[in-house]
Structure prediction request, 132 residues.
Amino acid sequence: MIVKSMLCNPSEVRHFLDEIKSTKTDKHNLFDLEDMIKQGQTYKVIASSGEAVGAYVLAAYDALLWVLAAGGRAAFDLSKAMFQLIELQAKEFTYVGFRTERPGLVKKALKAGYEITEKKHEVYFLRKRIQP
Prediction:
């Protein structure tokens, strides 16, 4: 299966991004999705069928490419596909990282080579070294 990502206007994928703001992903309502979108660049994830199946927002902070938001739905492992797409975009960075409150996503990230750098209550901060 070939999956690709493409820079896009947030309005094109807002329905995917709106779905990620919930008590499951931000239990204490700490983050404002609108602010997260304004801080980075938005990408849509396109399946081999040509259909958009997800989206993510990236921001660069020195040597770190940070995933501010990511979401979507697909008939395949979308998390795994997004890890691969984002890591390709991060090839000029030392690290790629993100935060999550989803234990299932933490398990997938650990399998993909990410490390937990911090855990505060139910919030995990993860990162992966891309360059030495």
Remarks:
- The longest helix spans residues 78-89.
